[in-house]
Amino acid sequence: IIEQSAEGNIWFESKENKGTTFYFTIPLKGMMKKEGNKALT
After folding, report:
1. pLDDT at 22 over 70
2. d(CA 23, CA 31)
């Protein structure tokens, strides 16, 4: 799993009859800086 090899975390929250939301974190350590301000969607 990408999250494990990047020393991140993954978790989820479920609400009955509403669905499940998944969350993850990946540290920026070792990532190259990219110029610009493109929004994530």
Report:
1. yes
2. 20
